[in-house]
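Dig into this one:

. . .
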Amino acid sequence: MLCSLIYGQLADRFGRKPCLIGGVFVSIIFGFAMAFSPNYIAFLAFRIVYAMGGFALYQSAFLISIELVGPKWRSFNGTLLCFYWVFGYVSCAGTAYLIRDWPTLQWVTVVPLILCFSYIYFIPESPRWLISKGRIDEAMVIIEKIAKSNKKSVPDNVAEELGHEQADEDTKANFWHLFRYPNLRKKTFVVISHWATVTLVYYGLSLNAITLGGNDYVNFAINGAVELPGCILGLLALQYIGRRWPLAVSLCLCGICILGILAVPADVGWARILLAMSGKMLVSCAFAIVYVYTGELFPTVARAIGFNTGNFFGRFAGLAAPFLLDLGDISELLPPIIMGSVSILGGLTVIFVPETHKQNLPETIQDAENLGKREMHLEKGTEMVKL
């Protein structure tokens, strides 16, 4: 959550790749530091910084992955990270089962990050971000390299077309630009609601796994494994259907599964577990869609800021998840009623945002403001009207 406040500004101002490499360095240094913490307070301090590095690493990788490709491959690239998340989730259970000494477990899980140093050499900066900052020559070097690897040629007039100057306001986009224009402001509030919904429900169902009984390691692995079909459904929906309705359906069905727990007698435990795991699969599908959808709703000049605005409020909802489960001490009906209702309401909010399937990414603030508008009434050519 702390990193959400900082990362968006840094990534949109200094680039995706510097934040990616910075995240690698921070994660490795403080990941090893955690294993040798002299006391619990030091461990918590190292853990906070370690999490911030991991956040920057993950989010930068996602932004680069969707900004390097066109509409055809954006769904695949955007959801690919979700599959790696599931792999790490499940393998963590097996690793923790084999290594019961926590300091050893800590450095064992950090060692693979050393391979990420290779990113410095073969992962380029986002050409879209470079273009948005007017660094056309640097962008053209990357574009030509990509075209050569794909055995394609770059048209002669591309550099000239990309060289059109952008408005100063676009190149200096910040957090407040998300709320300055009516259509973009509406999208921002809806994105915040989506992130809050999926994060609350996701962590609520994940933390509830400890109540399943049996072996904790097996429960943890199963809780991660059920996300795999959710990621597959998310990928297929993004690729062949779109964003709006798959997100709405997955969240609404998730809410129905959670509310369905209320109708199952307490002595029919297997049915309750089945509904909970179905809800976890569906909210994982929604999470995969939200990642891609958010990246497509915001412009390149403020994509990281918009993305992490939603993420920030989502983390607030995630913080509430443990306390939501504690409401079960008052009445076991409260957690499923709240999570189920929130999930359904979150799914209904998609009516306020446009479909972005097979559309080009918005590059400027104006592109994002115009996205989804049926009629444009602009007084001065392409100038936007501020409210």
Summary: The mean pLDDT is 87.
